[in-house]
Amino acid sequence: GAVVSQHPSRVICKSGTSVKIECRSLDFQATTMFWYRQFPKQSLMLMATSNEGSKATYEQGVEKDKFLINHASLTLSTLTVTSAHPEDSSFYICSAKGQGQEKLFFGSGTQLSVL
Amino acid sequence: AQSVSQHNHHVILSEAASLELGCNYSYGGTVNLFWYVQYPGQHLQLLLKYFSGDPLVKGIKGFEAEFIKSKFSFNLRKPSVQWSDTAEYFCAVILRGDNFNKFYFGSGTKLNVKP
Question: Do B100 and A10 touch (CB under 8 A)?
Answer without folding.
Answer: yes
